[in-house]
Amino acid sequence: MSQSAIEVHDLVKHYQILERDAGLKGAIKALFSRKYRIKEAVKGIDLSIAPGERVGYIGFNGAGKSTTIKMLAGVLRPDAGSVRVFGIDPHEDRIQNARQIGAVFGQRTQLFWDIPVRESFDLLREIYEVPRSEFDETVAWFIEQLQLELLLDVPVRQLSLGQKMRCELAAAFLHRPRVVYLDEPTIGLDIDIKETIRAFIREISDAWGTTVILTTHDMQDIEEVCDRVIVLDEGRIIYDDRIETLKQTFNNERTLEITLDEGTTFTIPPSVTGVVTELASETDTIQLAFNHHEISSGQLIREIVNCNQVKDLSVVVPKMETLIRNLYQPEVSA
Amino acid sequence: MRLQKYVALAASQIKVDMAYTAWYWASMFSVTMRLFILYFFWQAVYENKTDVSGISLSMMLTYAVLATMLDQFRGGAGRELAHLIKHGGVAVELLRPYHLLDKLLAQDIGTKTSTFFRSTLPLLVIAMLFIGVDPPTSLESVFAFSISVILAILLATLIDLLVGVLSFYTVNVWGLSVLQEAVITIMSGAIIPLTLFPEWFQTISLYLPFASLVYVPVAIYTGGIDASSIWSSILIQLAWVVAFFLFVRLLFAYAVRKVTVFGG
After folding, report:
1. Residue B4 with chain A: CB contacts under 8 Å
2. Cβ contacts (< 8 Å) between A96 and chain B: which residues?
3. Chain A residues lying within 8 Å of B257, measured CB to CB
């Protein structure tokens, strides 16, 4: 049996939150008696991720994504359950585990703030004990992939967000880690840079077989980078499957948007009742949900046009975003 | 443990320190001011006297200069750690294949090396020219002084780190570090030699680590500690260093289990 990259069993983490009444009175009261509230951030997660897999890890803010990632990376200690990354317990053997992982935490820099990027990389080479020749080869490749040549001699604090993120990403992969955690690596970036970053992650992971765990709120990231998607909600996994499967499940869902001539009313042709569902409609604009498998778009349009004064109409193919939203509210898509 | 990465960290810290020139001149200026204030203060005290509790003016000035120099090497690593914890940067540090305390120590050594060459040496020259520093009493005392100074600086860093590690528990460690500053300034002998304090105070300080920070090395140089007890004083310093080293490690190992990272 081949070893899995990440193996997680029944992982639990809760935080103690200090409860304090508002205002000065509350602050003084808190000096004498402290009340804590337990927040369960992660409530029993099981995961098994194969080497080389690229997993999109998504969920609303506060769903427990970052907490899980920090436990996988060894920064936080689980309250219960177990984590193994290539057989290593990341918290107990934190330093040993650190050699085989890389990470980008969106809001925090891991470059050295005061020195130029090139020297940051060099320092990372020393820290991760990367042989010089291997390092030079890697850096040359990254410079080309991420267009870093003009950034190398600039101190990190002078870089723009997009420039910084490209450097962060290079830094996370420099020592050729087996697993890389990317916590919102595209947050606040423009389309061009997002594209560069996505392509980079794909290429490197393909070349080295790097396992990638990616959290993001941008579904485009997931669609273009990942081959598996895990959805987390309130500390539990509510969906875990291949991205192809997810797409196929909802692949035949379509929405037809119809705008009528002014003053006319909409009638559903009897031949399609039961096949289409009318969604929230305004006076002039009607939205019909239908399944591509049950009735073709052409057929439906023909029927509609036959008995209505149609000004405009369009067929909407669901985006990844909609697919994910459907996971949270399965009754809407039914 | 491979030493090379820690050497690289120390070297890079030296480069970072070099980048901040405004800060450098400001600190040079303030230390120079402090030296001259001390100079005029002791001049005034000695106006009608030849000695204070058996200490001559030139001996006192030598003490004041060296103590001021040594006081510059207090802490830094602990403040850095407290900052990392408060602002969440500790999460990234814990992803790295090094022991965070070793990394902070390496950076601290870098900072202190650059302080020595950029600040201590020029100030020492100024002090020798304008204030007067007695030559060392013997070759042995120079040797003992050097060792004692290194131990003193190491101990100061470890005490600072201890306060830093405590911020894993309290998050805001400001109050604690103000207290630490005050206690060390008085009890280390950074302002006046401990022998000028009342008897009971000296007895207390015998059992505390603070005298090892400034008084011991400087008194070894000036002859305030007589030749026979030089090496036993250094041994006591060493014992404090070892004790604090182990204690900080232990506390850190325990604190890391309770890490909460703020802000996502």
Report:
1. 126, 129
2. 97
3. 77, 91
pLDDT in tens, A266-308: 888 888 887 888 876 666 788 888 887 788 888 888 888 888 8
**Average pLDDT of chain B, as a whole number:** 88
Q: Which CATH fold topology does A251-333 show?
A: Alpha-Beta Plaits (3.30.70)
Task: State ipTM.
Answer: 0.82
What does the alpha-carbon distance between residue A88 and residue A85 come to, in Å, rounded to a whole number? 5
CB atoms within 10 A of CB A334: 7
User: Is A38 part of the contact surface with chain B (CB cutoff 8 Å)?
Assistant: no
CB contact at 8 A, A275 and A84 = no
Domain locations in chain A? 6-247, 251-333
Residues 6+ apart with CB under 8 A from A158: none
Third-level CATH fold of A6-247 = Rossmann fold (3.40.50)
Q: Which residues pair with A16 in a beta bridge?
A: A38
Segment B155-191, tens digit of pLDDT: 999 999 998 998 887 766 778 888 888 888 888 888 8
Task: Flag residues of chain A having pLDDT under 70.
Answer: 1-2, 20, 30-31, 250-251, 280-283, 320, 329-334
Interface with B, mutate which of A61, A99, A109, A114 (most B CBs under 10 A): A114
Which among B9, B88, B259 is the nearest to A76, CB-wise? B259
Element (H, E) at B143: helix B139-170
Name chain A contacts of B263, Cβ cutoff 8 Å: 107
Are A114 and B99 an interchain contact pair (Cβ–Cβ within 8 Å)? no
